[in-house]
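Sequence in, structure out.
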Amino acid sequence: VVVPLPALCDGGAVTIDVAGDLELGDVTASTLDVSAGGALTGTGLIFAEGDARFEAPSISLTGENSIFGATLSLAGGGEATVASGQAVRLGDLALASLDLEAAGPVDDASAGATSITGDLSVATAGGEITLERPGASIGGAISAVTTLQGAGPAGVQITRAGSLMLGDVVADVLDLSVGADVSQSSLGAVNVIDLG
């Protein structure tokens, strides 16, 4: 199913629920709730002024200028790849893995829940990465790569109640608050100017 959404993109609340694959075109909405029984893909501009939620067995939303004005929630238990042209605040996450690229800072809302069985990879081209949910369940490595307006790295802060495995990290300051062991993936590299 291909949904260019010319009639639904009037800035109001948008809800889409399909049984199979779904390809999104450009979307403009006050809030956005999208569910697909198959693969969910989109390369166009997604603008959600408020909360945006996507649920599908696999999610690939790679429109570089997409804007999620409130929280971005992702579910379905599979792999997810998302790009954004601004800052991103993560809501509920229920995935096998997440690869997120944003032009602004990335953080996670305190009210949300994180369950990722594999790796979490976050890259920013314009600010800090702050992951402060102590009870987040992440089975793999956390990668956090930052730059600040192309001028150099920014800060990374990670809070975990249990153990933490680091993947790739690029930051000017790395601040870790961890309740158990910290380890590094054999495939990861940590590059930090100042260790907080």
